[in-house]
Amino acid sequence: MSGVTEFISFPVSPGVKPEDPANEPGAALLDHFRAAKQQAGYLSSAWGRTVEDEGRIVWVIDWKDAHSGTGSTATTLSPFLPTDNDNQPSITTLFATLTPPLANTLPTNPITELFTPSFPTTISGHEAATATATAAVHENMISFRRELLENLPAGTAGPVSFSMGQVERPGVRKHAGSPSGEAWGMVVVAGWESLEAHLEAKKTEAFGRGIQPLREVMLKGVGGEVVMRHVVFRGVE
């Protein structure tokens, strides 16, 4: 049975600083991360703040299979959340089977791109067309990976790792931009030598060729943007 990766993204209180060994709330959060090791099927995990919003942490856990863990890993994070959370994004959790598996690569990536595009669940209400379109998205994702790993011009650094998979839980979620009001998603986890290296790769023809078929069917997120974050991960020891 294939392993499953859990992605937990949550806002953190300004007083919680797990990077600082002298910070007690931060140490408590690290203890929370370590406690997950006691759950059945735990393999490894890593955490880091997003470059785009340092008030948000992403915690990624590799599980042995879909039946591992308790399914409530994220529910005990409340002591570390901002006390005034009215305007903060909520905790988000998703599960995906990645190809290839992460195999504890996150802490070794200089920086990791997390890209979570969403796609409509229906096309004009036609089930057969929807199934074909879903298969096409998967093929286009494979082509996109190939462009980045094999076809970038000399002198342009490609990703040092590249894993991807379909979001399995939640398999479908509400999305105002979808004709059906619902969407399904993919996850791309790509390691780069630096944020600048990723931005330079995005300027190439190979990147444009690979991403264009996906952009044609991607749904826009809040503010009209597809969700992408960069994180420098630290392993949970």
Features:
about 240 residues, alpha+beta, Alpha-Beta Plaits, 2 domains, 11-stranded antiparallel sheet, 4 helices, about 25% helix, about 25% strand
Describe the protein.
This is ABM domain-containing protein. It comes from Aspergillus heteromorphus CBS 117.55. The chain has two domains: about 5-95, Alpha-Beta Plaits, CATH 3.30.70; about 110-235, Alpha-Beta Plaits (2-Layer Sandwich), CATH 3.30.70.100. The protein starts with a strand and ends with a strand. It contains four helices and eleven strands, in the order βαβββββαβββααββ. With about 240 residues, it is of the alpha+beta class. Strands 1, 2, 3, 4, 5, 6, 7, 8, 9, 10 and 11 form an eleven-stranded antiparallel beta sheet that branches. Helix content is about 25%, strand content about 25%.
Q: In the CATH hierarchy, what is the architecture of the largest domain at level 2?
A: 2-Layer Sandwich
Contiguous runs where pLDDT drops below 50 for at least 5 residues: none
User: What's the count of strands?
Assistant: 11
Largest sheet: 11 strands, antiparallel
Tally of domains: 2
| Helix/strand/pairing category | alpha+beta
Element-by-element helix/strand order: EHEEEEEHEEEHHEE
Mean pLDDT: 88
Output the radius of gyration.
18 Å
**Beta-strand content estimate:** 25-35%
The span between the termini is 26 Å
DSSP helix fraction: 10-25%
Tally the helices: 4
- Name the CATH class of the largest domain: Alpha Beta
Question: And the CATH topology of the largest domain?
Answer: Alpha-Beta Plaits
Question: What characteristic shape results from the CA principal axes?
Answer: globular
